[in-house]
Amino acid sequence: MTPDAEDDPFARRDAARDFARAAMRVGTKPDERRADRHAAAPRPFSPRLFVAASGLTVALAAVFLMLRPTPSPVPQTAQAAVGTGLQSVTRADEATVLAAPQDRLRVFRLSQAPSVLVLAFPSLHEQALMLDRVGAFVEKAGMPHDRVLPDSELLSRIAQVGEDFDSFYYGHDYRAADLLRFFVTADADGVALDTEERALRKLLTQQGMLQHGAVGAVISVPPLSVQPPVDAGSRATILRHEVSHGVYFTDPAYAAYTQHFWAEVMTERDRAAFRKMLGGEGYDTANEDLMSNEMQAYLVHTPDRRFFEPSRMGIDASLLRQQFVAGMPAGWLRDETPPH
Ligand SMILES: [Zn+2]
User: Fold this and answer.
1) 43 dihedral zone (left: phi>0; alpha: psi -120 to 50; beta)
2) Were 172 and a residue from 215, 220, 272, 307 both cysteine, which residue would form a disulfide, CB within 3.0 to 4.6 Å?
3) d(CA 203, ligand 1 centre) in Å
4) DSSP letters along 152-198, please?
5) What is the enclosing helix (H) or strand (E) of 25?
């Protein structure tokens, strides 16, 4: 997920900052706004997941953000934590992932969908070191998708749009095939991988996810954080949102159902409302696969109103959600998704 947009109530990502700015700008009550990671508007980039904020948090965030200097440099540290975290991969459900200690990077295979790897990071900074360049390469609006950016160019591009390296994304989600393409392209371009990216490549190779034709996905979840604010509820929301992407990437029946719903069940007005919301958060609105994937994640698997408020869509999103859930392919995800 990503940050917040100028006038669009659905801003996410640099949630804290956008959130604070929005609240200050229009006098909106903090709890009427949302922040997460995958979105963005006039601004080409925004991180994708969200962060919510209570009144006090927003006020504190506003002060902090005004004082905060330019985006953090890309540090070349944290290798030790990353290396330690990649030593073992265990199966876990969402509750177990959320309850695990946040002292180092921990890697899980989602018990309900073992082809989905879940990376739980000890800090937004370490998450950014490992995955920001992948995100820019794979999907971030306004970024080149045919080459891997040198670190310096990534930082300058993030700074140009007023974003921050660490909170460029709150949560990530990628297909195995896109991760393979990232590494192949970096090699072909002669772009050196950073330590954390090399650790990721090693992990994915060990897990068989970089083989041609491999079916798999990588998703991530940030730790609890005071600044930017990520509370337990936000963390659970981010994880469920990303899990739905993991299912979309690895379950052909669910992906086909979602794409059919997007193209055939939803009206052009419905799609336009989602494109407006998603475009405002930095998603490439010309990418139909991305649009349908984000539609299902927000419409159906982001129940926290701090992150997604259907009533502000200008369409009957609640009815759409009911229709989507009613037709979902049978399985654990449908079983775990409330009908309303
Ligand atoms: Zn998303």
Assistant:
1) beta
2) 220
3) 23
4) HHHHHHHHHTT--STTS-SS-EEEHHHHHHHHHHHHHHTPPPPHHHH
5) helix 15-26
Q: 72: CA distance to ligand 1 center in Å?
A: 24
Whole-number Å distance, alpha carbon 243 to ligand 1 midpoint, is 9
Could you list the pLDDT tens digit for every one of the 340 residues in the chain?
A: 543 333 332 233 333 333 322 222 222 222 222 233 333 222 322 334 433 333 333 333 332 222 222 333 333 333 334 444 456 899 999 999 999 999 999 999 999 999 999 999 999 999 999 999 999 999 888 899 999 999 999 999 999 988 899 988 999 999 999 999 999 999 999 999 999 999 999 999 999 999 999 999 999 999 999 988 999 999 999 999 999 999 999 999 999 999 999 999 999 999 999 999 998 888 889 899 999 999 999 999 998 988 888 888 889 999 999 999 999 999 999 999 998 8
Q: Is residue 1 part of a domain?
A: no
SS3 of 253-304: HHHHHHHHHHHHHCCHHHHHHHHHHHHCCECCCCCHHHHHHHHHHHHHHCCC
Ligand 1 centroid to Cα of residue 102, in Å, is: 22
Span from the CA of 190 to the centroid of ligand 1 (angstroms): 30
Domain of 110 in residue numbering reads as 79-221
Number of domains in the chain: 1
> Pairing relation of β-strands 173-175 and 217-221?
antiparallel
Q: If you count them, how many residues does the chain have?
A: 340
Respond yes or no on whether the N-terminal peptide bond of residue 228 is cis (omega within 30° of 0): yes
Q: Cα of 36 to ligand 1 centre, how many Å?
A: 9
Alpha carbons 117 and 248: distance in angstroms, whole number: 13
C-alpha 131 to ligand 1 mean position (Å): 15
The rounded Å distance from CA 136 to ligand 1 centre is 14
* CB within 8 Å of 34: residues ≥ 6 apart: 4, 9, 10, 11, 12, 15, 19, 50, 52, 305, 306, 307, 308, 309
Whether residue 103 is contained in a domain is answered as yes
Domain membership of residue 28 (yes or no) is: no
